[in-house]
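Subject: for your reference before the review

Hello V.,

The reviewers asked for a structural picture of the protein, and I figured it would be easier to keep everything in one thread rather than splitting it across files. Below is the amino acid sequence we used in the manuscript, unchanged from the supplementary table.
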Amino acid sequence: MKEMEKKRNRLILLMLILPLAVILISTGCKKKRDDLYQFAITSVTTSDSSSEEVSMPSESETVTETESEVTTETETEPTEETTETEETTPTPTPKPTPKPTKKPTKKPTPTPKPKITIKGKKTSKKIVYSKPKYTEYLFVGDSRTVGLDDCVSGISSIAKVGAKVDYLKSVLSKVTKTRKKNVIFNFGVNDLGNINKYIKVYKSLPKDFIKNNNVIIMSVNPTDGSKYNSWNKDINSFNSKMKKNLPSGVKYLDTNSRLKKEGFSTRDGVHYTTETYKKIAKLTFYFCGDVNRKP
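And here is what came back from the structure prediction:
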């Protein structure tokens, strides 16, 4: 009788413990399954099948219990499907992209050409220019042209002391027979008021003469001193008007501005020293592209 009462009490206790165990496992209780299993075994002594049914958690519970110390084959060993996936999808190794190499490009250095207006500072570099078209020089003018011919070698002249526009007219037929030369006209200092007449004469130059020569009109160059310094105002007016009325194909050489900028010297206020005459000749050679020629 007592034995049956004990069994009944144990059964009642088991019925009370089982629901509690299920609740604890389903709510994710932190209690370890081994402790729960031991607690159920020591509290109830039933058949072997009953003990297994109470103590072993379900497969789904095993997955949710991440902190359990009980490890199964499913948890420790990877499945065949996982292994195949790892073998069939290797991580590709990215190939390094080669950087494009830029080749330095050198720009060709253009060969400098002689300038019409001579400006700029002197440099130590040797500049190579193309050969001038003509290397012979004919200067046509007044007493200043006479002085230039006396101080500079290798040139020729048609000139007269005190020459004015009438002298230019008288020698024009002779001058226009010239071919293949640099022909430089330098008149005006003796008759600055005749600018319109000079323009008319220059515009009458034959086209054949201009075509077969390098025809240049040189500016009236500056004067100095108390007696002649006042002439520079009229000289500037003469030069400005001449430059604006050049005949087609004829060039204008502004040595006046260059001499005033760099300096010049005269013997009497009008006629220059040898050094200045050579400077004028050098500017003319340079203007014609004959840069290596010395006066």
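For the response letter, the relevant points are probably these. Strands lie at 137-141, 156-159, 182-186, 214-218, 251-253. The chain has two domains: 2-63, 137-287.

Happy to draft the paragraph if you're swamped.

O.
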